[in-house]
Design brief:
The protein is of the alpha/beta class. The protein has one domain: Ribonuclease Z/Hydroxyacylglutathione hydrolase-like (Metallo-beta-lactamase, Chain A). It contains 3 helices and 5 strands, in the order E-E-E-E-H-H-E-H. A 5-stranded mixed sheet has the order 1-2-3-4-5, covered by helices on one side. A hairpin with a 4-residue loop joins strand 2 and strand 3. The longest helix has 9 residues.
C-alpha cells in the first residue's frame, strides 16, 4: 500500500507546495482536501473515494470543489466525506492522522 503526500504546505499554497492532502490510492482514501485535490483523479485506482477531514479550516477543505469535474466525467462514481473521529488515550490524544488510518483498516 502506498501513501501519497499530495500537499504538505502550510496555510497558503504556492507553485511548489499545496495545502494538506494525503492519499491511499489503492483504497480510494484521502485525508484532508487542501489545494492539491486536483492531483487525485490522475492517481486514483478506484471509482469510489472516501475523504476524511481532520478539521474544517480552509487549508484542509478548499479543494473540495475540485471533486466536481471528475464526478461529472464519471471518473469518481461516489465520494463520501467524513470528519475524522477524535480518539483519546488515557494519557494523551492520538494524532488525527493515526486515527483516520486506523479507521481505514476497517473498510
Amino acid at each position: 500500500m502506498r501513501l501519497l503526500f499530495l500537499g504538505t504546505g502550510g496555510y497558503h499554497p504556492n507553485e511548489r507546495r499545496h495545502t494538506a492532502c494525503l492519499m491511499l490510492p489503492e483504497l480510494g482514501v484521502v485525508l484532508d482536501a487542501g489545494s492539491s485535490v486536483f492531483r487525485i483523479s490522475a492517481r486514483m485506482e478506484t471509482k469510489e473515494l472516501d475523504v476524511f477531514l481532520t478539521h474544517p479550516h480552509l487549508d484542509h477543505v478548499q479543494g473540495m470543489t475540485n471533486f466536481l469535474v471528475p464526478m461529472l466525467k464519471g471518473e469518481i462514481t461516489r465520494c463520501r466525506v467524513s470528519r475524522a473521529a477524535r480518539y483519546h488515550c488515557r494519557r494523551e490524544r492520538t494524532s488525527l492522522f493515526a486515527a483516520a488510518l486506523s479507521g481505514v483498516a476497517r473498510i
